[in-house]
Amino acid sequence: MIREVLMGGFCGVSAGRTVSLVRLLCAAVCMVSAPSFAAGKTSGQAAAPSASKAAVKVSGKSQGGAVGSTATPSAAPSARKRDGASADRRASDQRPTDKRASVSASRASTQTGGRAQPQPVNTSERRGKPDLRPQARDAVRDARGQRDARVEKAALSGKAAASGSRVGARTTDAGAVQSARWMKASFAPRIVEPARVSIGQAIGLHQVGDPLELRSSVAMVLDQQTGQTLYQKNADAVLPIASITKVMTAMVVLDAALDPSEVIAVVEADRDTERFSGSRLPIGSRLTRSELMQLSLMSSENRAAHALGRTYPGGLKVFIDAMNAKARAIGMEDTRFADPTGLSSDNVSNARDLARMVRAAHAYGQIRRFSTATDLTVDLGPRQSVFRSTNRLVDAPGWDIGLQKTGYISEAGKCLVMQARVDSRAVIIVLLDAAGSQSRFADAQRLRKWLLERPNDAAQPQASPQHNAMLVERF
């Protein structure tokens, strides 16, 4: 084709138009070589000698200047060839222009010597069938979710052991091992520790019946003015008293006549190392002695009570000795104190001794005021915090409480002591080792209702006679 172009283009043409014809020739060479270059480097290299040979022929014809007239009829076939090359170039321009596909195709053609390689075809599409792999993955995911739900249900219904054995039997299967990796940690059966029983429950005090069916294993109601026992249940049983201890802590501090406005810092030594309980008083807080005493009585703050004992003249050991001396002075014969907070289970007493302590503490105006307050706002440095009472009966309708203190540790159960006026009679109520979190308050309501219904001169109810004189030694 190049020869025909040369023969048709230079035939009878003057030397002045040689440059134009050379340009035409170069365009024709480019159109011819473009499809070959798309096929690979081999075709492109093959096209280069042709172009060079055509250039040599052009140079020879130009220098000779003699052109035959017989080359003129070949112009029409040459034009058809150019039209075909243009059509091939337009078709190649309509191919996908993805760069990654072009690079891959070029590399493949280079490695295979320019031969076209077959592309992978989805067999499902080739056969006209839909691709079901996404649906299969969804079905497997749903099955795993249903299995995990069954495991969770079994764990919550107490069948975790049986479910675990079945899962263990299937662990030999590779699919089960893979499924176990997908199981969420929240679906695993939890290890539930048994609730700690109090000493009263351990020795059977809750088995003692009483007319009011109280949930507290120890109960006593005493007439404050006459000292007459109105109600009793295991009144001589010696048990841990928990935070009821803080009443004695307040009495010893007040007996020392220390400055109530003195600022005391809560330090690391006030942290609970007995049970590692939390506190809303951060280390470094600075409060007055009066505020610490109210927080210990009203909100049962252990760090506040410990700070009161730590700053006692002579230190903590001297303070504990003063607590035991005060107990003996008011007739608490079966009582022993080991710390100012009540976190230690070595703080023990019985209902009779605690009634004597409440009766003595009621003579302190600050103890009455601090223990029956409903809330207190204190400045803890960067913020202010509101502390509230632990006794929900303080502001309950129908109650006239003059002194109160709550307490709890696992060995003591839920405890409550109060001085209240019921039907114009001042009484002291002692409840120890209640079974539930609200049982002590419910028992206090039952006792109040019983006091309102009974005549003042009626005989006192008692529990089973064989338990009235029970004295449980501390072990």
State mean pLDDT (0 to 100 scale).
76
* Rg over alpha carbons: 50 Å
By helix and strand content, what is the structural category? alpha+beta
Q: How many β-strand runs?
A: 11
Low-confidence stretches: 8-16, 36-77, 91-103, 108-112, 159-174, 180-188, 464-475
Cross-sheet strand order for the largest sheet: 2-1-11-10-9
DSSP helix fraction = 40-55%
Q: Please, how many helices?
A: 18
Largest sheet: 5 strands, antiparallel
* H-E string: HHHHHHHHHHEEEHEEHHHEHHEEEEEHH
* Fraction in beta strands: 5-15%
Shape: elongated
Alpha-carbon distance between the two ends? 119 Å
Oligomer state of the chains in this structure: single chain
What does the model show?
It is a single chain. The chain has 475 residues and is an alpha+beta fold. Helices cover 46% and strands 13% of the residues. Helix 1 packs parallel to helix 3, helix 2 (18-39) runs antiparallel to helix 3 (41-64) and helix 11 crosses helix 14 (316-329). The longest helix has 24 residues, at 41-64. The protein is elongated and about 135 Å long. It starts with a helix and ends in a 7-residue tail after the last helix.
